[in-house]
Structure formats: structure tokens, C-alpha cells
Amino acid sequence: MRFHFKGALALLVILASSSLPPASGGASPGEVPMFLALDEPLEPLFPSVVPMRRHDVYDLKVRLKDLGFYSGPLDDSYDPACVDAVKRFQVGYWLDADGTVEFSTWRALAHGVARPEKPAIGPPPEGVLSIEVDTQKLGLTLMVDGKPWRTYPIAAGKWEAMTPVGEWRIIDKGYRAGGPFGSRWMALDVPWGGYGIHGTNMPWTIGGYFSVGCIRMFNEDVEEIFEMIPYGTLVVVKGYRPQLDFTKPIGPGSRLPEVVALQQALRANGFDAGRCDGVYGTVTAAKVRDVASTYGLPYGKHLVRDVLRVLGVK
Fold first, then answer.
1. Kind of pairing, strands 156-157 and 209-211?
2. Which residue of 14, 45, 124, 132 has the smallest Cβ count within 10 Å?
3. Could you tell me where in the chain the CATH 2.40.440.10 domains are found?
4. How far apart are the first and last CA of the chain?
5. Which residue in 34, 90, 25 sits closest to 64, CA to CA?
6. What fold characterizes domain 129-238?
7. Rounded to whole angstroms, how far apart are CA atoms 277 and 10?
8. Which residues pair with 197 in a beta bridge?
9. Binned average pLDDT, 10 residues per bin, the chain of 314 residues
10. What is the pTM of this model?
11. Are strands 139-144 and 129-134 parallel, antiparallel or unpaired?
12. Distance, CA of 312 to CA of 225 (rounded, Å)
């Protein structure tokens, strides 16, 4: 007689959710704001005549392939071959072999994947905390007064959905009982999309490029830093960036990755416009005019393009 875990696991989730402390900000326990929820699907995957297409299917296929259940293409289609692989996996883990991938199956898939052992730490030394994320090295470093204190492994955005380079602020925080956001999340103020730092129910993805731009951490790691990080904490993301398009109009009110590149170039050339936040505001506009005055550039519709050329941005 086979014992099924789904009902028991669902009960455990409910009990865990009821015992969570209140969220630190505007979101209630277990709630994820819409601007952040865009990145990680919360609904189950299930077999369908027209295969579901979702970015987390890629994560699923990678894990099934590592475990020897799947040998097909690594893409985002929940196709029959992947469904069959899930059913075989579910049989091996005493789950209902229905091909539906929900909490209990994701949890079973994560079995055996552990965070590398690290010594316990206390609070960081006195000083101003900030975070530096390097998407090339796939690491998140907690900084104290601008000096590295501790580095954690991460997963970053896929090549077609890179983690946004720039200087962001923590604007919201919350708890989760599990699921794709893991046990904690912290939202960033990126102006063109919903991005954040959070845990994951897919720990095998840490150390690779799997998300749609968010920064994933082991649950134990995000829990370790969560209480230390106050609202407004600076998060500097550096590393890979997508191909930028400087032919598009850029000016007052623009909120684009291209504006981050402009702000970084202004700073590098002695025209610091403040935080490189991707928003073409009054300070950025003033610094662009300063560059134009310094180099004798005309104040026409191509002002930003001309400034970018003078600053060496391509």
C-alpha cells in the first residue's frame, strides 16, 4: 500500500504559514507583491494537450536530467517527454504519478541538494550595510562600510532575461512558507520590472543562470541576512548586461537600462549624477547639460546621443 505525502505536506504548509512572524513591510506573511511575483510562477505545472510553456520548466528539466529521468532538450516546454519523466520521478518518491508539479514534487526534486556547510556567524560589525551582486562571479557580498564581510552563492538571470545592472534599494521585504520564492524575499526598486533577492525551492539552480532576472539564494543564506538588511539598503549589481539600444529616444522621464549606462559613464568622467538607478531625472539631466557645455555640444534632440558619444559609450 503506497503512502501519499501530498495531503500531509499541504497540512504542513498551512501550519508553517500560520506560525510565520509578520512581514517586515507592506506585504502580509506569505504574500508576494505583484511587481515581484511576475518573476517566479506560483501555479503548479500540469500536463495539457498544448504543452505549458514557462521558464521554470527549464529548471525542472535540468534537475530531471541530472537525476537520470530525462534526456530531451532543455527548454521551457512542459512536453510529453518531460511529463513522462516527472511521472517516473514521482513513482520513485512515493508521490501521485499524475505529472502535476506542485509543492510536494518540487520539494522532492530538491532532496539531496544542500547548501555548502558554512560556520555560523553573528551580526556584522558596526557600520553601514550594503550589498554587492556580481553576476559574472555569481556571488552576493554583504558589505560593511564598503568592505566585503561575507559572500554567498547565487543564481542570476538567464541570458535572455539578465539581472539588471545598476544601483538599487531594498523597498519591501517579506516571509514565505516555501514555494519558488523560498522562505524570504526582498524587493528592489528597479523601475522597469519586478526584481528582487529571494530564496528558492530549486536549490540546484544556485551557481547558474536560471531566473528571469531575480537573484536567488539558498534559503539558509537569505534567512541569514534577511533580518540584518534594513529598508533602503543599497544593492549594487554589476556584471553581464544585455545589448543596449542607444538609438531609442532617451530623455527626461526615461526609465531604462540605457540610462544606467549613461549615469555610469557620467560618473566615470567626473559628472556624477548620483545613484545609477536607471531614471532620467533632474540631476541626470543637469549633468548631461554640464557635459554639453564642457564639450560645446548643441542642445538639440540628439543631445543624449552626442553626450554618450563624447563619453565613449557605445
1. parallel
2. 14
3. 129-238
4. 66
5. 90
6. L,D-transpeptidase catalytic domain-like (2.40.440)
7. 41
8. 186, 215
9. 40 34 43 60 91 96 98 97 98 96 95 87 89 98 96 95 97 83 93 93 96 95 94 97 91 96 97 98 97 94 93 88
10. 0.86
11. antiparallel
12. 38
**Grid coordinates standing for 226?**
534577511
Name the one residue in this structure whose C-alpha cell is 545598476: 166
The listed CATH number (1.10.101.10, 3.50.50.60, 3.10.20.540, 3.40.50.11810) that belongs to domain 6-20+44-109: 1.10.101.10
Place of cell 532575461: 161
Closest listed residue to residue 9, CA positions, set 77, 104, 112 = 104
The residues, any chain, with a CB within 8 Å of residue 11's CB and separated by 6 or more, are none
Known catalytic residues are: 198, 214
